Amino acid sequence: MKKTFLTTLLGLMTVVCAQAQSEEFSRHEVAVSFGAGSNSQWINAFEHITTTFVTFGGVTYENEDFTGPFSVEYFYHPSAKIGLGGIAVYGKNTQDVMSGGKKIGDLTQSYFTLMPAVKFDWFQSKTFGVYSKLGAGATIRSEKGGDENESALHFNWQASLLGLELGSRQIRGFVEVGVGEQGIGLVGLRYKF
Q1: Containing H/E element for 6?
Q2: For residues 173 and 189, is the Cβ–Cβ distance under 8 A?
Q3: Where are the beta strands (DSSP E) in 42-147?
Q4: CA nearest 62: which of 12, 102, 22?
Q5: DSSP structure class, residue 125
């Protein structure tokens, strides 16, 4: 009787421990980040070059200041390796519009991006992780200059080829390298729960 009870108890403990180990990963995570070299920055630079060329040097842009991209993201993990969620990105660009060496106005462009995304956790330990991330969605670009206000909607994406995170099981700092609206490089802080 004692032997059967101990065998049953040991079997039950083994099942509970195995189940606890399989559920050891966090189901939810939120992150904030700051990047550089976003798609919007590259598009803006290209537009300025073509505008200067088309107007034969008549209009130029100076004192450019790009703020962002700042990002917030959320992922839900149905499994330890896959996270499904979304990314929101904000960036702002201000500059002086020049003609003939004189300032003729100001131009402000704001970029709001929403992208459904997937995250692939290649390796995770209690303090370190390696992952990749892919998102695709749309950007609303708002442009204000002088008396003109314009808005446009265009496709956008983020492909972070390599992400490294380091910290505790719940709070981690991270760096990512890739291409897209969050930037070619970004740093941030992640909370898992």
Answers
A1: helix 2-22
A2: yes
A3: 59-76, 82-99, 102-124, 128-145
A4: 102
A5: -
154 conformational bin, left if phi > 0, alpha if psi -120 to 50, beta if neither: beta
Separation between Cα atoms, residue 187 and residue 164, nearest integer Å: 10
> For residue range 29-38, what is the model confidence (pLDDT) as tens digits?
999 999 999 9
Q: Could you tell me the end-to-end alpha-carbon distance of the chain, in angstroms, rounded to an integer?
A: 43
Residue 173's alpha-carbon distances to 116, 163, 164, 186, in angstroms, are: 22, 11, 8, 11
Q: Which of 23, 40, 24, 35 is nearest to 133 (CA)?
A: 35
Q: Are strands 128-145 and 28-36 parallel, antiparallel or unpaired?
A: unpaired
pLDDT in tens, 183-192: 999 999 999 9
Q: Are 119 and 79 in contact (CB under 8 A)?
A: no
The whole-angstrom distance between residue 60's C-alpha and the CA centroid of its chain comes to 31
In this structure, what are the phi and psi dihedrals at residue 16, rounded to the nearest 5 degrees? -65, -45
